[in-house]
Amino acid sequence: MELLPPLPSVIIAALADSKQNKGTLMSVLAPVVRHYVFSSPRVRRCVAGGVVAGVFAAMASGFGLPVIIQKVLPVVFGKEPPPPVLQEWLSRHIAPEHMDMALLWGAALFIPLIMAVRGISTYLNTYLLTKGGMMALSDMRTDLFARLQWLSFSFHDRRSRGDIMTTVIQYTQNVQQGMIAVLNDLVLQPLTLVAAAAYLVYVALTSHAGAMLLGNLIISAACIPLIHFVGKKLVKHVRKALVGMNVITSIVEETLSAQREVRAFNLEHLREKMLREAIRHFNRILIMVAAWQQALAPLVEIVTALALSYALFHGAHDGLTLEQFSAIATAFYFCYDPVKRLGATANSCQMIRVGIEGINQILLAKDETPEPDNPLSLPHPTPGAVDFRGVNFSYVEDTPVLRDITVSVPAGQVVALVGPSGSGKTTFINLVCRFYDVNSGSVEIDGVDVRRLTRAERTGAIALVSQFAALFRGTIRDNIRVGSPNASADEVERAAERARVDEFALQDPAGYDRMLEEGGAGLSGGQRQRVSIARAFLKNAPILILDEATSALDMKSEAAIQQSLEELAKGHTTFIIAHRFSTIRMAQRILVFEQGRIVADGTHESLYNDCMLYRHLYDEQVRQAKEGKECAC
Q1: Cα-to-chain-centroid distance, residue 66
Q2: Looking at the predicted structure, is the pLDDT value of residue 14 above 60?
């Protein structure tokens, strides 16, 4: 099955450029909007339709309603004659005795017409922009998830699982909610403001209200520093809130993934206390976020009230009629209401900025095991020989884990890796799989450096059976087919029989179509391990890695699975990591690790005679076996 590609280079470049621009609001938002809105035809169509609808809604609100108040209502109530053009048309088509009724009907129809245009356009504006925003954010979430699967193990080692989960779920949720709110108001409100301002300009040019309008503009400028101040405070507390959510998620994830330890050591109350304190701290921050979110609206309303008071004073002083003042006040409302909403939109933009900054930590993270520019291919069929040539490796700088490893494993050889905990055995296997890149030297499969192989080529040559079998939500058949997604039903069932999965699967009426919950709940440890072995049988890769494949099982389960493992290893280059020496009896060769070096290489007999460390490890297990603490060696 082909893996998802890495994040498109265009968005990587754009986001990287925004990072260099010191993280200003527009530099953070612009590349995201360019890639996820303008580069997607389906999103672009929705946004374009929403913008057009917003234009009509804005004109109907900001210009249409004041015109109704100033021009239409005075005509209906007989205070002013209709415009000359309308009056001439009416006189040609309507008798004088029906003129008043015609004007009344015209006004009565004009008002719902304007409101219908406003209502339908506002609905389409909100619906289309919301739809476009949701599609854009769905694409972002998919890219984020795909990126996480392509980033190296080094990245995952540095980030807690709770932190990553918060980013994928909470950060994207904040961006989605903020983006929808912004898209809803960022088009409609500025256009409404422009339309209302256009009407005020028209009034200023056709009346003596210019001084009043200038005064209102000066008063309205007070909104700008208010919006800026509230936005800065909001960003500060939103960042704290997201950190608090990270802490809560980490505590919950740690506790649920270690239920046995929590209950065995009676840690329930301690973990509850930790979570309670984290939630209290988080709630205090959320209260501050809510306080600053709601602070802007009343501040802008106070400014609006001052401006209307100023307009009332000057309007009365300048002799404006009630209709003229009402129209101007309505236009002022449609100027200040968008300002208030745009202030809230600015706050939403700041929240989006914080979310995108967190998301960028994943999207812009360096891939430490990148795909090669000019990949090579393995020979087909692939023999599976593995060579380490002068390999040095460390997870943390200046703390070497493997030192000067040089070893060749011929195709088809079964090799066991033994040594104390932390001696480098698992790291050796990680480098074969290229979960990490070496600091120096090279790891080769059939003479090809693993760094020159594509991920699909490399993973296709390796089958892994680990200590804890990872089963996914789905049927037993689906979980076996992970080893070869295109395998037929017969091939899946043959692999299941070789791994003895049929012994328990066929006892259920659903057979191989039995649904498994998360982690294979409902199956024993031995049964889950057999499903994992069946995957390896189905994949039939030239290189097989058994990483503590039976260490979590009891003696009876281990003995049954050991037979399957021995059959699986036939004809494959096999690496076995095991603390139990009983599981490495099939090994043709044993590598002994100590402090990151291979200190001995040979068979059991030669190592027992010549390697003090190996003899000590073996004798210790024999002693424990006699005491009944371990299975017999």
Answers
A1: 46
A2: no
